[in-house]
Amino acid sequence: MSATSHDTHHDDHHDHGPPPGITRWLFTTNHKDLGVLYMVFALIMFFVGGAMAMVIRAELFQPGLNLVDPHFFNQMTTMHALVMIFGAVMPAFTGLANWLVPIQIGAPDMALPRVNNWAFWLLPAGFVLLLLTLFLPGGAPAGGWTMYPPLILQLGDAFPFLIFAVHILGISSIMGSINIVATILNLRAPGMTLMKMPLFVWAWLITAFLIVAVMPVLAGAVTMLLTDQYFGTSFFNAAGGGDPVLFQHIFWFFGHPEVYILILPAFGIVSAIIPTFARKPLFGYSSMVYATASIAFLSFIVWGHHMFSVGMPLSGQLFFMYATMLVAVPTGVKIFNWMATMWQGSMTFETPMLFAIAFVILFTIGGLSGVMLALAPVDLQYHDTYFVVAHFHYVLVTGAIFSIMAAVYYWLPKWTGNMYDERLGQWHFWLSTISVNVLFFPQHFLGLAGMPRRIPDYALQFTDFNMISSIGGFVFGLSQLIFVWVIIKCVRGGEKASDQVWEGAKGLEWTLPSPAPYHTFEQPPVVK
Amino acid sequence: MKRKLLGALAAIGALGLPLVAAAATAPESDWRRPWGLNLPRGVTELSQDVYTLHMLVFWIVCIIGVLVFGGIFYSVWKFRKSQGAVPAKWHHSTTVEVVWTVIPFLILLFIAVPATQTMIKIDDTSDYDMTVKVTGYQWMWEYEYLDEDVAFFSRLDRDSDRARQRNPDVRPQDVEHYLIDVDNPLVVPVNTRIRFLITANDVIHAWWVPELGWKKDAIPGFINEAWAEIQEPGTYRGQCAELCGRDHGFMPIVVVALAQEDYEQWLQEQREENGVVATDDAEEADVETAVLEEVDPDELMQVGRQVYDNQCIACHQAEGQGMATFPGLAGSDRVMDDDDWVIDVVVNGVSGTAMTAFGPRLDDRELAGVLTYIRNAWGNEAEPIQPADVRDAR
C-alpha cells in the first residue's frame, strides 16, 4: 500500500493491509482502526443517550405523569448524563485524537498501540455493566450522574455495577490519555516543535493531562461510596463522623476539570476549521495555547462553584466566585481570536464551517450564562434550576457535540476518500441548529421562572415552554438520523476527494493521500 | 373552596384548619404565571439585591453578546469568497490581544464588587428575631418554631397528590396550584428577621423559595443557616431543589407571611391545637399520658388507611404492590407473621434505604393504625397491632 521503494518481500510486514474479518477490529493496534472504533462506539452511545433524552422530553411535554414513573424518570436523567459524557463525547474526542494526532504530528502510529487497543475495548465492557443496570431489580442508577450520597446509597442491585463501570471507564480514559501524551511528547516529526503543533494536538495534550490528573480522584470518590455501602466506613455519613458534602468536594474536584475535558478538544477542532474556510491563518496562535493552558489550570480551583448552596464559609464562596469569573478571560480571548480569524478572511460555508461558526456563537451563549452562574449570590437562585440545564447543554451540545460534528464533516473526506453529500450536510446543520435552540433556549426562562431540574412533572405555569422545548428536542433527535445517513453514504462512495480536500486546509494530514493509507508517515516528514 | 376543604380534611389531625383560614387572607404573589421569563424581584431585601445584581450582569452579558455576534455576522456577511473577498495575511497583534484581555478583566472587577457585597449580606445570619428549623424528609418538610412549642410536617396537598398519579381521577390542569401547594404551609410574620436552620433527616434536599432570594441545601447531620425578612404579607411558593429520590418533584414549599398580630394569633391557635407532632418536650408528655387502651380494629383500619394514603402510598403503591426497590406489602408473609420485625421497620426505619423511621413522626395510635392496615388490606390477614405494642417497640 505504501509507495516505498523498499524490497517489499523483505519488508512485507510494513505493507500488510488490515487482516480480514472481525479479528481486524478485535485485535487491531492501528490508530486509524481504533479511531474508527471509538467514533462508531460514540455514535451508538449518542443514540442510546439520545433515546433517554427523548423519554425525558416526552414525559415533560405536558404536566402530569404521562408516560413513566418518577423513579424511571430519574434513571433516565442519570443514565442520559453518564452515557453522553462517558459514552459519547469523551470516546468521540479520543477517537478523533487517535485518527488525527499521529497524522497531524507526522507519527507512524500512537506510541503505545497495545494500550490503545485495551483502552478501547474496556469501553464496551464498562458500558455493558452500566447499561445492564436498566434490567436489574430496582433499576438503573437514579441519583443523578453526580452520585451524591446519601441518595446514591439507596440504589438497589445496580450500585456495585455503577461503581465498577465508573472504574473501568476511568481506567480506559487514563490509558487513552497516557497514550496521547506519550505520542505527542515522543513521536513528533523532526522540526515539529511544540509551538508548531496544530491546536487540536495542543488541546488534546492539555486535556490528556487533565484526565490523568482527575480520573483517579473520581475513582477514589466512588470507591469511598463502595466502602461506605458495604464495608462499614463512614466517609460520607454524618452519623459515623463523616460528611456528605466531602463527596461533593471530591466529586467536583474531578467534575470541573471533567467539563473542560469535554470542551478543550472542541477548541482545537474549531481552531483548525475556521482558518481553513476563512483562508487566513489562525489569529493569535500562541495566545490560543496559553489560553487553553490557563483554562486547564483554572479548572482545578473552581470546583466550589457547583456547591454555593451547601453552606461553605463566606471566604470559600468568594474565592470560588472570583476564580470562576477569571475563567471568562482566557475563554474570551479564544472567542475573540476566532472572530479575528474570520475578519478580513475569504469565507465559504461548507458544513464543517457552518458547525464551527454555530459553535462559536452558541458556545458563547453558554459562556455568558456561565458568567452569570459564577456569581455566588445570584447562583443561589439559578442553582439546580433549568437555567443551569440550559447553560450546560449550550456548552455541551452546541459546544462539544457541534464541534465533533464539524470535525466529522471536515475530516471525513480524508478518512474515506469520498466527499460527503453537501446538500444533506446542510440540511443536517440547519435542522440541528434551529431545533437545538428551540430545545434549550426556553429552558433559560423555565429556570429563571422557578422550575427546578430533575423533576418528572411540573407546576402548570411551566407548561408552554416545556412543550416548545420538547418539540425542539424531538426535531433535534430526528435530525441526527440525517447525520448517520450522511456518514454511511460517504463511506460507501461519492465524489472522490483530493489530497488537500479543502482549498484552505493546511497541515501534515492534508499532504497524505485521501483516503489516508493504513500506515502513514513510516518515514517521518520534515517540518520546516 | 372545595379544594381547600378537601385539603383540610386530608390533613392529619386538625392542624390544617386554622391555617387554611389564615392562608386565605394572605394575597397570592403574581410572579408565578404562564410564560414567566425572569427571576422574581421577591419580597426580601436580599431577593431584591440579588435581582438587581442578576439584571446588571444580564445586561452586561447581553451587550457583550450583541458585540461578539455582531462582529461574527458582519464578517460572515462582508468577508465572503463569493463576494470576492481576498484573505488578509495578518495573524497576530499584541496590542489587540492585550486590550481584549484587560477589558473583560475590568468588566469582571466591576461585577465582582456588588456581588461580593450581596454575598456578605446573605451570609450574615446574626441579629435574628426568631428561628425556624427546617428539616427535609423523603418527601416532605418539617417546620419547628424554636422556643414556640410549635412544629408540624408540610407535604404536597391532597389534590395535587391525586392529580400527579398516573391515570389520575383529577387532571393536573384542574388543580389550582398543581404541585406547588401543601397541606400545612410555613406561617411567618412580616418585617421580622427570621433565621432558618436547615437540615435533613435522610438524604440531601434543598429549601428554595425564589421570592426569598436564595436556596440552601438541607444536609443530614449538618445544620445550615440562612435568613429572610419578608416585607409584604402574601403566599410564596417554592420547591425542593436538590434531587432527593423518587418524589423529589413532589415536595413543594409554601410560605405564608402574615402581619405580626395575625401571626401571633395563628401561633396561639397552633399551641391550643397542640398538633400531631410537638416539640420534644411535648412529645414526651404526650407519650406518657397517651391512653394505651385497646382500640377497635375498625377504627385502627380507618386511621391506618389515612396514614397509608399520606405517607406510604408513594413507594408501596395504592394496592400495596410496591415498585422497583420498594417492596410489596400485599401478600407478604413476613408483614403478616413477624410482628416484632414489621413494627421495628415502621417505627425505626431501615438504614441505607428510603424507609425512614416513622416513630418520631407519628403517634402510637397512628403507627398502630397503619401497621394494622398494611396487615389487613389488599387480601392480607393478621391480628391488629395495638398502640401498646408500638409503645413497647419505641
Write the layout of secondary structure elements.
The complex is a heterodimer of chains A (528) and B (394).
Chain A: H1 12-15, H2 22-27, H3 31-59, H4 70-105, H5 113-132, H6 158-186, H7 199-230, H8 244-261, H9 264-278, H10 285-299, H11 314-342, H12 351-374, H13 376-382, H14 386-416, H15 422-448, H16 463-492
Helix pairs in contact in A: 3-4, 3-5, 3-16, 4-6, 4-14, 5-6, 6-7, 7-8, 7-9, 7-10, 9-11, 9-12, 9-14, 10-11, 11-12, 12-14, 12-15, 14-15, 14-16, 15-16
Chain B: H1 2-10, H2 16-25, H3 45-78, H4 94-123, E1 130-137, E2 140-145, E3 150-154, H5 158-163, E4 186-189, E5 194-200, E6 205-209, E7 214-218, E8 224-228, E9 234-240, E10 252-258, H6 260-273, H7 280-289, H8 297-316, H9 333-337, H10 339-348, H11 364-376, H12 387-393
Parallel strand pairs in B: 1-5, 4-10
Antiparallel strand pairs in B: 1-2, 2-3, 5-8, 6-7, 6-9, 9-10
Helix pairs in contact in B: 3-4, 8-11, 11-12
